[in-house]
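> call design_seq(struct)
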């Protein structure tokens, strides 16, 4: 069985009468890159802050690497690295000086880790350049380097690619993929833009108004969003047989309720209809389906995205 890295059970945060996070059950296993997706104010930061103990939950529990008891949990937090909001670096220090400062402050032994993480995030050659002169992409990568300095098994990143240009997004994404592949690091990354997490996340959690709407693997999500023609007929088995014989249809699936989905001949709905009718199949409805990820997400949250 896959190892549970981060599990939350009915995790809840209330601010007075307002519920920011409402009974959220997260389930993140070792090696996953979990995209926590939700529009502004959905509760993403609050969830991450409860996991990192920056905010105390008002209900529910957090389990990290199997631990839930407070003392164990705090030991397990040492196995996590987090980047929540832009870390405060000293503007007049270089990348290396800033990390060295935090290394000493956190009591991480050995200077080697600073060079190691700077290399990893491609900031090793920034020399005397001061933090204040860094691009946003460089600043975010330095924040990531700081979170990685103690070799975490779980990395928690709150909107790290927010505001980056397309090139910066690709760079950041590649670093995370390398980290996940080479070191097996489990990653939780939040974003309000689903497409930013495409080609990165292996799993998604969609959150809105403090509620977890759906947790789904990237694979199943891609399947759900696959373009198809969906036919409702009187006899799906017969329809499949007719389509196979008359049109050579192979890529299809039969669903419960006499529904059949074709993943081929997408530009020939009229021919499909005619073939079925000629084959003696009664057609109740025919619909072109298939959403892109963004549409799927908008459908889930029930409307137009704000912010
Ligand atoms: N200290 C606080 N007191 C009162 N309300 C708060 C507090 N912190 C957060 N909230 C509210 O809780 C809700 C969730 O906020 P949160 O920052 O977790 O959302 P988010 O999904 O991270 O959004 P964003 O992308 O805008 O940061 C918001 O409505 C926010 O205003």
């Amino acid at each position: 069985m896959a190892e549970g890295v981060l599990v939350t059970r009915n995790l809840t945060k209330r601010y007075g009468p307002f519920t920011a996070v409402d009974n959220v059950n997260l389930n993140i296993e070792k090696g996953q890159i979990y995209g926590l997706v939700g529009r502004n104010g959905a509760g993403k930061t609050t969830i991450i802050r409860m996991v990192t103990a920056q905010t105390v939950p008002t209900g529910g529990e957090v389990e990290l690497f199997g631990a839930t008891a407070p003392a164990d949990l705090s030991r397990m937090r040492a196995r996590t690295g987090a980047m929540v909001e832009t870390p405060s670096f000293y503007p007049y220090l270089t990348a290396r000086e800033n990390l060295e400062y935090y290394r000493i402050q956190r009591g991480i032994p050995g200077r080697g880790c600073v060079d190691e993480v700077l290399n990893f995030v491609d900031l090793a050659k920034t020399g005397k350049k001061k933090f204040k002169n860094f691009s946003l992409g460089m600043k975010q990568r330095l924040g990531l380097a700081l979170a990685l300095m103690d070799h975490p098994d779980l990395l928690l990143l709150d909107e790290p690619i927010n505001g980056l240009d397309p090139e910066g997004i690709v760079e950041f994404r590649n670093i995370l993929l390398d980290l996940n592949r080479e070191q097996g690091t489990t990653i939780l990354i939040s974003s309000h833009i689903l497409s930013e997490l495409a080609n990165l996340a292996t799993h998604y959690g969609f959150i809105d108004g403090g509620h977890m709407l759906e947790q789904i693997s990237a694979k199943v999500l891609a399947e759900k969003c696959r373009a198809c023609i969906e036919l409702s007929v009187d006899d799906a088995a017969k329809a499949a047989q007719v389509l196979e014989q008359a049109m050579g249809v192979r890529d299809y699936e039969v669903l419960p309720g006499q529904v059949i989905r074709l993943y081929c001949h997408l530009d020939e709905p009229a021919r499909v209809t005619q073939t079925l009718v000629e084959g003696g199949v009664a057609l109740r409805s025919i619909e072109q389906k298939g959403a892109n990820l963004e549409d799927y997400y908008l459908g889930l949250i029930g409307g137009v995205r704000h912010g």
